[in-house]
Design a protein that fits this description.
It is a single chain. By secondary structure, the protein is an alpha/beta fold. It has seven helices and five strands. The chain is 48% helix and 13% strand. The longest helix is centred in the middle third of the chain and has 14 residues. Bound molecules: 1,3-dihydroxyacetonephosphate. The site of 1,3-dihydroxyacetonephosphate (13P) has 13 residues, from helix 3 and helix 4. The site of 1,3-dihydroxyacetonephosphate has 13 residues, from helix 3 and helix 4. This is Methylglyoxal synthase.
Length: 144
């Protein structure tokens, strides 16, 4: 499965500790993360991460694009609900796309734990069926 991990600054320690605690699960999956979150996770947990751009520089939109193509199976986005972000429209768009595509989304650590434990139990097997059904096929005749 492909898991996206994103954390705002005040939640980055929580995210790193979460990945360390469930390292045995995260190691079995493809992890994608926004820039700074990804660096912290890689440095402190040694879990391999596909790092995208930093959130405010387009990282949330990169993950949103993967969600729109139904490529991401789980999004864990530890948001800071008390601090306004300069890229709030990108954040809202990503959350909206998760709902559009019915992608499991955790925005706090309590839900993240429930979802990661359910992934360990293979409760996410339905995602393989959905991905196959809605596989993105690039339109033809658009090149050049
Ligand atoms: O801003 C973010 C999500 O909106 C997170 O980005 P970073 O992981 O680069 O800090």
């Amino acid at each position: 499965m492909k898991i996206a991990l994103i954390a705002h600054d005040s939640k980055k320690n929580e995210m790193v500790n979460f990945v360390i605690a469930y390292k045995h699960i995260f190691e079995k999956h493809d992890i994608y993360a926004t820039g700074t979150t990804g660096s912290r996770i890689m440095m402190e947990s040694k879990v391999t991460v596909n790092r995208l751009k930093s959130g405010p520089l387009g990282g949330d939109q990169q993950i949103g694009s993967m969600v729109a193509s139904n490529e991401i199976d789980l999004v864990i986005f530890l948001r800071d609900p008390l601090v306004a972000q300069p890229h709030e429209p990108d954040i809202t768009a990503l959350l909206r796309l998760c709902d559009v595509q019915c992608i499991p989304l955790a925005t706090n650590i309590a839900t993240a734990e429930l979802l990661i434990k359910s992934m360990e139990r293979a409760d996410f097997a339905w995602r393989d069926i959905v991905k196959e059904k809605y596989k993105y096929v690039a339109p033809t005749g658009t090149e050049g």
